[in-house]
Amino acid sequence: MISKQAKGGEPPPGQEQEQFAVIRMYQAREQIYPREIKGRFASLRWLCVFLTQLVFYGLPWVNWNGRQAVLFDLATRKFYLFGLVLWPQDFIWLAALLIICAFGLFLFTAVAGRVWCGYACPQTVYTEIFMWIERRIEGTRSARMRLDRQPWSFEKLWRKSAKHLAWGAVALWTGVSFVGYFSPMRALLPELAAFAFGPWEIFWILFYGFATYGNAGWMREQVCKYMCPYARFQSAMFDRDSLIVTYDAQRGEPRMPQARSAGKDGAGDCIDCTMCVQVCPTGIDIRQGLQYMCIGCAACVDACDSVMDKIKRPHGLIRYSTENAIEQGLPASAIRRRLLRPRILIYSAILAAVVALFSASLWVRMPVKLDVIRDRGSMGREVEEGIIENVYRLQVINTDERSHRYRITVSGIAGLTVAPSDVIEVAATQTLSVPVRVRAPHGAGESGSNKIHFELQAEDNPALHVSEKAVFIVPRR
């Protein structure tokens, strides 16, 4: 926005002196240089980084029954999850899985705030990896700040170039791993080496790699502050008994440097060292209270505890606690008791019920599906010796990873037979379309529509069977 402001001083007679001032509608970003910190929460965060990336990078290389264990094959519309093969008709389980994830997020947030953001969110994980690379190449926080203030030189050029090349390599491999979930990884890499990959594969590798490079390398805290919707609606899942990273103002205030607070009665434990601000990946001051920009990573807890060790004060000036516990001075036992409050119990009950239903439905899932399509162009017709014939097309889907021979039987009218054959073989994870003729003897059934049932029974597995309803038309006599 541009506005006119009169400049100080008297303008010449008959003239009006004006100045155009720029008023920014958005706050300019200030570069954040998080300090590296060690501690129990930093170790936990790196454990989460290791485990999540072990799963993400490693799963495309795991084999199961001679194929990739986890593969979303969009071309054939099959989704392989270890021993489970899902088809488009099975998307109900995908919906159930998303519901489980949603209620799990609600539950974890109600219990421990933004614990997902602080430890397992991809933005946090890749930012941690990129910052580790940055520290190894450019040095400590003060060294990075000093390097950025210096004019361009050979040292600055090679350090910046090496950092961005390392970031680009990690981002590119992340893109390759992502595409490896949709194109078999063992076939994808030779294609990449020979530059024989398809246009969609290279598009998604570059797109996902660029997103990783941009979000974790350049945008970082801006994603958490401005782009992530979770930061905006998380407060709806908090209450005053939710565990959050918080500063104990009753113990810390009035804050003052240690040299000034020495020997003074009433001085708080906070020595205003700003270490909690220096280690924060989003650059906030936790001492100002709960803020939506806080991702709950607890880096400030590790930093403050290390300072308390140096000045011989107890840990916990900044800690995981609740608003009620801070205000009322509740002990840890009271905090644990208040975790079992109605909101937590309701979330837990719903989550347990959905997980139980999801597991039970997968357990009883039949790995064969049958669709019966009656030939609309050929109604019930009378053939030789007064036999009534209807024509159908059976769509048989074998979701098992073994081929099976199925016997076709039809019930509902006495004497029904199937032609040309009542035995079919369906290969593993394949669909077979089978035209069949169903015949009824003369005089069987009633004129018009008659309800019948097609049944498939695997010859090698008595428990593998499926039934589907259909209509048999008998011409009017």
UniProtKB/TrEMBL annotation:
<dbReference type="InterPro" id="IPR013783">
    <property type="entry name" value="Ig-like_fold"/>
</dbReference>
<keyword id="KW-0479">Metal-binding</keyword>
<keyword id="KW-0411">Iron-sulfur</keyword>
<dbReference type="InterPro" id="IPR051684">
    <property type="entry name" value="Electron_Trans/Redox"/>
</dbReference>
<keyword id="KW-0472">Membrane</keyword>
<feature type="transmembrane region" description="Helical">
    <location>
        <begin position="344"/>
        <end position="364"/>
    </location>
</feature>
<keyword id="KW-0813">Transport</keyword>
<keyword id="KW-0249">Electron transport</keyword>
<feature type="transmembrane region" description="Helical">
    <location>
        <begin position="44"/>
        <end position="62"/>
    </location>
</feature>
<dbReference type="InterPro" id="IPR017900">
    <property type="entry name" value="4Fe4S_Fe_S_CS"/>
</dbReference>
<dbReference type="Pfam" id="PF11614">
    <property type="entry name" value="FixG_C"/>
</dbReference>
<keyword id="KW-0812">Transmembrane</keyword>
<keyword id="KW-1133">Transmembrane helix</keyword>
<protein>
    <submittedName>
        <fullName>Cytochrome c oxidase accessory protein CcoG</fullName>
    </submittedName>
</protein>
<keyword id="KW-0004">4Fe-4S</keyword>
<dbReference type="Pfam" id="PF13746">
    <property type="entry name" value="Fer4_18"/>
</dbReference>
<feature type="transmembrane region" description="Helical">
    <location>
        <begin position="165"/>
        <end position="182"/>
    </location>
</feature>
<dbReference type="InterPro" id="IPR032879">
    <property type="entry name" value="FixG_C"/>
</dbReference>
<feature type="transmembrane region" description="Helical">
    <location>
        <begin position="91"/>
        <end position="112"/>
    </location>
</feature>
<dbReference type="InterPro" id="IPR017896">
    <property type="entry name" value="4Fe4S_Fe-S-bd"/>
</dbReference>
<keyword id="KW-0408">Iron</keyword>
<feature type="domain" description="4Fe-4S ferredoxin-type">
    <location>
        <begin position="260"/>
        <end position="289"/>
    </location>
</feature>
<dbReference type="InterPro" id="IPR014116">
    <property type="entry name" value="Cyt_c_oxidase_cbb3_FixG"/>
</dbReference>
<dbReference type="Pfam" id="PF12801">
    <property type="entry name" value="Fer4_5"/>
</dbReference>
<feature type="transmembrane region" description="Helical">
    <location>
        <begin position="202"/>
        <end position="219"/>
    </location>
</feature>
